[in-house]
Amino acid sequence: MSTAPLAFNVSPSLDLGALIHALAQSRTVIMHAAIYSRFVNGVVDEVLSRQLALGHLQQLVLISASAEASWHTAFEQVLRQGIRPAAMAREWHSSDRWIASLVERYPQQVQDIRSTLLPTQPMILTDTRLFIGHYAHSATAAGQGFWLECNIEQLSFDLNSSAPLSSDDPWIQAVYRHIDECRQIFASQVQSWDQELAI
Predict the structure, then answer these.
(1) What is the pLDDT of residues 16-62, one digit of tens each?
(2) CA 168, CA 82: separation in Å to the nearest integer?
(3) Do 67 and 11 form a contact (C-beta atoms < 8 A)?
(4) Residue 143 gets which letter from DSSP?
(5) What is the pTM of this model?
(6) Measured CA distances, 24 to 11, 51, 58, 95, 128 (Å)
């Protein structure tokens, strides 16, 4: 069995201390979650807003679920099992308003991507860290499940490339498997834009 070349930490629930530290040190952040209502008016919002205002955070990409996706309604029970439709609608609205506010205040730095690809994991990618959660059919939300923090400071990858991320090292392959979801979402957006331009 090969030895992990990267440092990993596992925590029950998202380690906000580690996340805040990583966000504060990053020039680029990609957040991939179906919904962001639990970040609204919290410490993550405070740090992102401060870093954007100071210009330290140069690019923030927010990937969320498209309301037009065929799986959207069914996936609500994965996100918030047992929630009433009216309460879920408020959560979507809160998430949308938070994203829209960041885009409005920092249009040159914040990108809003609505994906129709079924999300398989909540994920936050910073300059040096990758935070990975998981979705499950459970009354316990993803934020309270197991989260993996991976030190990716020594890795290099191009999310704008059409070529799959690859490596001969099985540990790095495992990391790239998660990051590749963002790459495929970016690729699907380019294809969508190309189709719109062709119409």
Answers:
(1) 999 999 999 999 999 999 999 989 989 999 999 999 999 999 999 99
(2) 43
(3) no
(4) G
(5) 0.89
(6) 20, 7, 12, 22, 11
